Every structure is written in C-alpha cells, then in structure tokens.
Amino acid sequence: MKLRILAIAAVLAAACAALPAKAHAQGDSIHWISSYHEGLEQAKVSGKPILLTFRCVP
Amino acid sequence: MACRRFDSQVVQSKTDTPLGELINQYVPVRITQMDGIDVALYDHDKHNALYYYAINADEEIYLRYGGRDEDSPETYLDLDSLQKALRQGLELHASRERGEWKDTRVRPTPRLPKDNPVLFEEVTERKRCVECHLIADYDMQFKREFGTLDAIRDLFQSPDIQTIGIHLDIPHGLVVESVDGAVKDAGMLPGDDIVSVEGNRVHTFGDLQYYYDKVDRRAKTVRIEVSRNGVTVPLTVTLPDEWWFTDLYFRYWTVEPVVYFWTEPLSDAEKQELELPIEGFASRIVEVDPAAQVYNLHSLKVDDIIISIDGEYIDPDTRYAERHVQLRKEADMGMDFVILRDGERKEMRVFTHMQNFRKAER
Description:
The structure holds two protein chains of two kinds. By secondary structure, chain A is mainly alpha-helical. Helix content of chain A is 53%, strand content 10%. Chain A has helices spanning 2-17, 22-25, 36-46, and one strand at 50-55. The longest helix of chain A has 16 residues, at 2-17. Chain A is elongated. In chain A, 17% of the residues are buried. Chain B is α+β, with helices and mostly antiparallel strands. Chain B has eleven helices and 14 strands. In chain B, helix 4 (117-124) crosses helix 5. Chain B is globular and about 70 Å long. Classes of the chains: A mainly alpha, B alpha+beta.
C-alpha cells in the first residue's frame, strides 16, 4: 500500500515537472517599479527601454 | 478622479494581453511623487494628472504620451493610441540600438523641485509629498516673485490644437479625422498623419502638444509636416489672432490674477461708432461671476462696455479686456476702469483676486 502511494506520488510529481513553464506565467501582473533610479539600472542591465509613468495623485 | 480609470487599466494590465505584452517589453516605472525627479528634463505641463514617457537608460526621450484639452484631462487618453505609442517607442529604441536614432535635443540643466525656493520652503522642508500640481503652483509663484513670469506663455499653457482646426482620430494617434479653420486653409486633409511641428518629430498627441506649446506666442505661422500616402507634405499654417488662448478654469488655483468677468470684443464698426481704437481691447461684458461681489472686487454688469483700464486702450496681444488684465496686472491689485453703461460713461475701481489655496504667504 505504502509502495503504491509512493509510486502514484512519483508519477504526479513527474507530470507536474513536465508542465510547460509558460503556463505559470500567463496572466501575470506587470511589476511596476516605484524608483526612477532603480528603473534606470534595470534598463541598463536588460537593454530594454523604460515606460515612465508620472501619476499625480492629489 | 480624472484619469483614474485609464490609469488602472494600464497599471493592472496582464502580461497575456496586447497592452500588457507591450508594457512587458519595457522596464515599467511608476512615479507618484516628484522628489528627486529632474523637472527640467521632464518638463511636461504639470496640470496633467497622468503622463507617460518612453525613454532609454541614458534618459533620452523617445516620445511622450499624455496631454489634455480644456474640456477634460482624458480627451486624448486612449488604450489603442497608447498601444500604438508603445510600439513606436520600441521601434525607436531598436533603431537607436542599431545606431540609426540619435537624440537631437539639447539636454537642459537639471533642476529638482526643491531647487524652487518657494517649493522648498513650503513643501520639502515640511516633508510634504511633492505632487505635480504643486510644482506647477510654486513654479508660478516663484516666477511672479522673481519677475521671470512670461504671462502669455506661463498662464496660457498648452494651446488647443482645435483652435487651428486639427481634430484627431484619437485611437489612431496623430491621424487627422477632420480639419477646419487655419489648417484647412493651409491644405491639411483628413487622413493626414502629423509627423512634425516646427521641425520637431512628433509621434503622439503628447509630442504634438509639447512642441506646439513651444511656438512663440507672437508667431504668425507654424510649420507642420504631414505624411500623406507615403509622402511628406510641408504645410505653413497661418495662426489666427490669440491662437494661444486657453480656458484657465482648470488651472485656477495656479494662475493669477483671477478676474471674475468675461467679455466679447466690440466689432470694428462698434469701436468706430464710439470713436475707440480699432486695435484696442474695448469689450462688452457677457458674464460676471457672483464671486466678484462676494470678494468685493467690482460691480461690473453684463452689457457694460469696458473702454480703458488704467488709461490704456490698446494691448498688442489681445482684444479682450479680461485677458489684458491677466497678461499685464497682478493679483490683489486695484485698477481704474472706464466703462459705458446704458450709454453713459462711468469710472469704476476694479480689483483682481488671488486664490489662496495652496499659496505660500510671502
């Protein structure tokens, strides 16, 4: 019985590992950086441009 | 709150949506207070509660997205045009990486909000949040205090492109939907795609409004280029009188002096009949705000004709009496008006007003 449970668990674990990584990334929220200088640093490292939003909330 | 819905749609977009996919190709940065921001570089009209830039790591600006008109801060905010702008930003970045795009703008001397001594005293030292509107408010106060105010530019910011007849197909960015007035006379057509203003490349309404605002207020023409069927067509647009005028109501906590009356200029024939200079600002009052009585500023009435103010009949920049006051006078100031009421000439003392909200007492 114990062996059967372990075998089923192993099969399930293998099945999960085989899932494409993209399935976890779909529908993710955008991670907005709140520091201007951190944004510049990330852009330097990644080579991406920056979308800079100024949101004035009185 | 204006712009809230648009802002939330952008901020909360998911990576598996067209908008989210585009944003994900950028480093997305969201600034809600302006401490430490170079406001000389990011010198958009601070009366916009929401504004975007596409830039690179060297702080070179590819394009701006945002801007408003008198009616609403949301007129030109559109998810389709934002996506178009984001794609354009990515193309410009790629062309820069290939060495094909260069920033031709001369970078201004950096300036932080706290470099304005009025703002420093009222906001920074008191550890208040530096909001965009406060920068606009205190910049105006600083300029007045130190005598650097250029009223025709600083009060009447972001002239409306509709004044010269440009009506955009907003979801499609700078594609023209319809034309009338000055641009129609210059040959602009529906379907044209605006590409430059006074030689400055524009990609979005934000760019267009930014460079249009730079036009000398006393200019007689503006150069606009459009793309039409793949061909660039240069247009020289003759600017109408007072093309720069904008309704100041949504800025009223910032701009001074406040005058609580509105006029329409007399016709040339009326001026001639009254033996007044044709080029003068003789105007008939069409509306009076009751606040004028509340603040004890004046007793002007609808249909009064303003003939002169402090002995002046002519202003080279305007034919409207209240605009003459806004351009030439200070807040909390008394002036000597000569008016016609029911055919009788009268003299009247009139005062301007200062809005005190958010104003530093100096």
